[in-house]
Design a protein that fits this description.
InterPro entries: Chondroitin_lyas, Hepar_II_III_C
GO molecular function, one term: lyase activity
Protein name: Heparinase
Low-confidence stretches: 516-525
Structural class: alpha+beta
Pfam families: Hepar_II_III_C (PF07940)
CATH architecture of the largest domain: Distorted Sandwich
Largest sheet: 8 strands, antiparallel
Subcellular location: Cell envelope
Number of helices: 15
Shape: elongated
C-alpha cells in the first residue's frame, strides 16, 4: 500500500510539470466538441454574474483571486472548484455572463486554487468536463492566447487524472473523474494514452458500484441519479466520436435506469431515502432519456434492498435493506424499514429527506427523521464522527406477497438488539384499490420498551383531530383518515428537506410507554389488523418464552367525503 501511494505521488508530480515539447502539438481548439447535456439555473447564473455563488445551501461572493477563501465550507468549495456552475452562466446566455465565465476561468489558469480539494480526481474530472462542455460558450470567441492557455491546462489536468487512477474517492465521484478523463481523450484524440487509461479502469469502477439489480451501492436515489448522469455523459461522448461504449457502462445504463424510475413518486420527483432530495422532474426525465431508450420500471430490487408496491394510483416504497457498506456509507441513513406513501401526484407520508448543512445532515440521518419506529429515542444505526456507519442492523427479513392486486409485506430487523435487546417487526398491507394502507409495528424483547411510531407528512398535507379519536389528513382534493391503537396518538411538528431549504411540516406520532403495553390481539380503537397474508407466508407466531411482545396497529383509509366524525 505504501509503495502504491508513493508511485501515485511520483506520477502526479510528473503530471504537474510544464508541458515542454508537448505544447507544440496542442490543438488550437477541441478536435471534437464535448457538449454539456444538462440545463442550468438562470436565477443562480444571474446571481453569479453579479459576483455571488450559491452552492450546497451556502452563498459567498466569488471572483478572481478568491478560490481559497478560508470561509468557504467544504461542500461549497467542492462546487466552486468543480466549475459545474458554468452551466448556470450559460443558461443566462448574455455577453456579461459569457465574460464572467471567461474571467473566472482565465483567473484559474493564471492562479489556480492551492486547496488539496482542487487535486481530488473527482473534482478535476468535473472541472475539465465543465470547461470542455462549455467551450463554445466562453472560449470559442476568446483570444488565441486565452484558448492556448486553456488547452494547455486541459492537457495538464487530463494528465493529473490519469496519474490519480484508479480513483481513491468512493462512489459517483470516481465516475466523475473517469468522465473528465474521457472528455480530454475526446477533445485531444492524438493523445491516445487518455482513452487507454479510461478503458483500463472504467470496468472495475462501474462494477464495484453497480449492484446486480441496478442499484448503486450507496442505496440513495439521489446518488443513483448522479451516477446515471455521469454514465449518460460518457455515452454521449462516445457516440460523438463513434467509439464503442464499454460493455460495463452500457450494462449499467440499462440496469440503473429502471431503478431510478421505480424510485419516483407520481409528481416525478425522487423518494427521500439515504440523503436524497426530490430534485427536478424535468432533469430526471432528461437524464433517463439520455441514458436509455426503454421505459422499464424495476419491479424487484433485492440487491439494493427496496420494495416497490403499487396499487392503482397509490405507491408504497419501502427501505428493506441494510445501510450501505464502507466506504460507501457516508450518505447512509438509519432508516431501515422506513417507507414513503403517495397517491397519484400527491405525497402523503414521507421521510424528512437529506440535510445540506452539516447540522441538518446529522439530524436527518437519525431514525426519528423517517417513517418508522424509534425505540427509547435511539436509532437503528449509529454514525461515527467521520460520517461512516459505526453500528447497523446485521439482518433484515423481507417477505412480499401479492394476491388479486393487494400487497402484503412482512419485515424485520435486529438493529435494536445490541442496544435494547429487541427485534423489530413491521407488517404492511396495501389494498388492491390503493385506498387502504394498514400497518402493524411489533417489538419483541426481554423487557417492555418505550417506543414511538413516527409518520412524517408532506408539507402539503394538513392534519386535524377528528371527534372520534381519528386524525383527518387533507391534501388538495384527497382526504385520508388515520387511526391507531396500542399507544397515544398526537400531531407534532416536523421538518421536511425535500428541497435545498428545510421547511416546517407535521408528523403523526403514536407513543408507547411500557405501562401502556397492549395485549396482542386488542382492538381498542377499532383499527382493523392487516388482512391475513396469502397462504404460504410466515406468521409471527406465538411469543417465545421469556420474551415480551408489544404491538401497535394503525390504518390509513381514503375518505370519499370530507367528514370530521
Amino acid at each position: 500500500m505504501a509503495l502504491t501511494r508513493f508511485a501515485r505521488v511520483v506520477r502526479v508530480s510528473f503530471a504537474r510539470l510544464p508541458l515542454l515539447g508537448d505544447g507544440r502539438y496542442l490543438p488550437a481548439a477541441p478536435v471534437h466538441n464535448v457538449r454539456d447535456l444538462w440545463p442550468g439555473n438562470t436565477t443562480a447564473g444571474a446571481r453569479l454574474a453579479r459576483g455571488s455563488l450559491t452552492w450546497a445551501g451556502y452563498t459567498h461572493p466569488v471572483g478572481p483571486g478568491q478560490w481559497d477563501d478560508p470561509a468557504f465550507e467544504p461542500a461549497f468549495r467542492e462546487g466552486l472548484l468543480s466549475f459545474r456552475w458554468l452551466r448556470d452562466l450559460r443558461a443566462v446566455g448574455t455577453d456579461a455572463a459569457r465574460l464572467k465565465a471567461r474571467a473566472l476561468v482565465d483567473d484559474w489558469l493564471h492562479h489556480p486554487s492551492q486547496s488539496p480539494m482542487a487535486l481530488e480526481c473527482g473534482v478535476i474530472g468535473a472541472r475539465v468536463a465543465a470547461w470542455l462542455g462549455h467551450y463554445d460558450f466562453f472560449a470559442a470567441s476568446a483570444s488565441d492566447a486565452f484558448r492556448q492557455r486553456l488547452m494547455a491546462r486541459i492537457l495538464v489536468e487530463g494528465r493529473m487524472i490519469a496519474a490519480l487512477m484508479p480513483p481513491e474517492q468512493p462512489g459517483w465521484q470516481g465516475l466523475a473523474a473517469l468522465k473528465g478523463l474521457l472528455a480530454v481523450a475526446v477533445a485531444m484524440p492524438e493523445y491516445t494514452g487518455f482513452l487507454t487509461r479510461y478503458r483500463r479502469y472504467i470496468d472495475n469502477v462501474v462494477e464495484s458500484q453497480v449492484l446486480p439489480d441496478g442499484w448503486h451501492i450507496e442505496r440513495s436515489p439521489e446518488v443513483q441519479l448522479r451516477a446515471l448522469r455521469e454514465l449518460a455523459e460518457m455515452r454521449a461522448m462516445m457516440q460523438a466520436v463513434q467509439h464503442a461504449l464499454p460493455h460495463s457502462v452500457a450494462l449499467a445504463l440499462d440496469k440503473m435506469s429502471p431503478v431510478l424510475r421505480a424510485m419516483r413518486h407520481g409528481d416525478g420527483g425522487l423518494a427521500l431515502f439515504n440523503g436524497s432530495h426530490e430534485r427536478s422532474a424535468a432533469l430526471i426525465d432528461m437524464v433517463l432519456s439520455q441514458a436509455t431508450r426503454t421505459r422499464v420500471v424495476a419491479s424487484v430490487m433485492p440487491d439494493g434492498g427496496f420494495v416497490r408496491m403499487q396499487a392503482v394510483r397509490s405507491l408504497l416504497l419501502v427501505d428493506a435493506g441494510i445501510p450501505a457498506p464502507a466506504p460507501f456509507d457516508h450518505n447512509a441513513h438509519a432508516g431501515t424499514l422506513s417507507f414513503e406513501f403517495s397517491c397519484a401526484r400527491q405525497r402523503l407520508i414521507v421521510n424528512c429527506g437529506g440535510g445540506v448543512l452539516p447540522a441538518w445532515k446529522d439530524a436527518l440521518r437519525q431514525t426519528a427523521a423517517h417513517a418508522v419506529v424509534t425505540v427509547e429515542g435511539m436509532s437503528s444505526a449509529e454514525f461515527g464522527e467521520d460520517g461512516t456507519v459505526r453500528r447497523r442492523p446485521t439482518h433484515v427479513g423481507v417477505e412480499h406477497a401479492v394476491a388479486e392486486g393487494a400487497h402484503w409485506l412482512n419485515l424485520s430487523h435486529d438493529g435494536y438488539h445490541a442496544s435494547a435487546g429487541a427485534t423489530y417487526y413491521r407488517r404492511l398491507y396495501l389494498s388492491a384499490d390503493g385506498e387502504v394502507l394498514r400497518g402493524e409495528e411489533t417489538l419483541e424483547g426481554e423487557r417492555e420498551l418505550a417506543f414511538a411510531l413516527r409518520l412524517h407528512l408532506h408539507p402539503s398535507v394538513t392534519a386535524v383531530d377528528a371527534l372520534d379519536g381519528s386524525i383527518l389528513l387533507s391534501a388538495g382534493e384527497q382526504h385520508w383518515r388515520f387511526r391507531a391503537e396500542g399507544g397515544v396518538v398526537s400531531i407534532e411538528e416536523s421538518v421536511y428537506s425535500g428541497g435545498q431549504v428545510p421547511c416546517r411540516t407535521l408528523q403523526l406520532v403514536v407513543q408507547v410507554e411500557p405501562a401502556a403495553r397492549m395485549a396482542e390481539g386488542g382492538q381498542e380503537a377499532g383499527v382493523e389488523p392487516a388482512a391475513p397474508p396469502p397462504q404460504g407466508s410466515t406468521p409471527l407466531g406465538d411469543v417465545p418464552p421469556g420474551k415480551i411482545r408489544q404491538v401497535v396497529r394503525w390504518g390509513l383509509k381514503r375518505e370519499k367525503l370530507l367528514l370530521l366524525t
